[in-house]
Every structure is written in C-alpha cells, then in structure tokens.
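Sequence design from tokenized structure. All designs in this work follow the same two-part layout: the structure record, then the generated sequence. An example of the structure record is given first.
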C-alpha cells in the first residue's frame, strides 16, 4: 500500500503536469506553429508517464486518460512529421515551391487544422477539468 507522503508527492506532480498540459492544449487550440506542437507533445509525454508511474494512486482513471492522450499525440505527431519532412527538404536544397514541398505543406495545413479543432473541442468540453476531478488533484 502506498504511503501518504508518496501519495502527496504523486498528487503534486500530477497536478503540475496536468496544469502544464492544459496550457499547451490552449496554445494548440490557438495556433499550431512548430514550437506549440513540440511543447504539446512534450507535455503529453510527461503527463502520460506521470500517470503510468503513479498508476497505483489512480487505479480507475489512468488508463482511459492515457488513451485519450494517445489520440491527441497522434494528431500532433502528424503535424510534427510534416514539419520535419519540410525541414529535411529545405536542408536538401529542395524548393518550397516544388510539388513534394507543396504536397507536404498542404498535408501539414490539414493536420494542423485537425489538431486545432480537436484542441478547441478539448477546451470546450473542459477535458482537463474533468480529469482533475477523476484524479482528485
């Protein structure tokens, strides 16, 4: 059985990482520039890992939350993949106006819009507020 001091430690870190994640969702809902995507993905990974490591304190909540995080991570990953591919094309000297670059730019715009839409939905539905209640943080 987990000790009370450890529970307090877990709750404190979970609350902190959930707060950071919530801020990154807000940023992604407003704009999906490369830095916002990177920060969102980092916050998802950290919060998800926190839930996994402290699963004993959240026996019913941690798995469903991690599944939801995984879906958002996939959306953010699609945008990030396009950003990386475009960077590599630029480094290789491929013009931004080349067919492949334009195709990637279009895919990136579409992925970015999908992520923005999902992030706005999360904010509208107050997903992180619901999680706070489930996690009791």
């Amino acid at each position: 059985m987990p000790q009370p001091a450890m529970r307090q430690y877990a709750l404190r870190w979970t609350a902190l990482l959930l707060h950071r994640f919530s801020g990154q969702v807000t940023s992604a809902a407003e704009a999906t520039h490369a830095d916002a995507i990177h920060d969102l993905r980092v916050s998802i990974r950290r919060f998800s890992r926190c839930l996994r490591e402290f699963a004993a304190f959240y026996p019913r909540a941690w798995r469903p939350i991690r599944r939801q995080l995984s879906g958002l991570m996939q959306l953010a990953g699609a945008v990030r993949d396009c950003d990386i591919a475009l960077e590599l094309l630029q480094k290789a000297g491929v013009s931004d106006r080349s067919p492949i670059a334009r195709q990637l730019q279009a895919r990136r715009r579409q992925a970015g819009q999908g992520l923005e839409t999902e992030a706005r939905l999360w904010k509208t539905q107050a997903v992180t507020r619901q999680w706070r209640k489930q996690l009791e943080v």
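The chain has five helices and no strands. We note this feature because it recurs in several other targets discussed in the main text.
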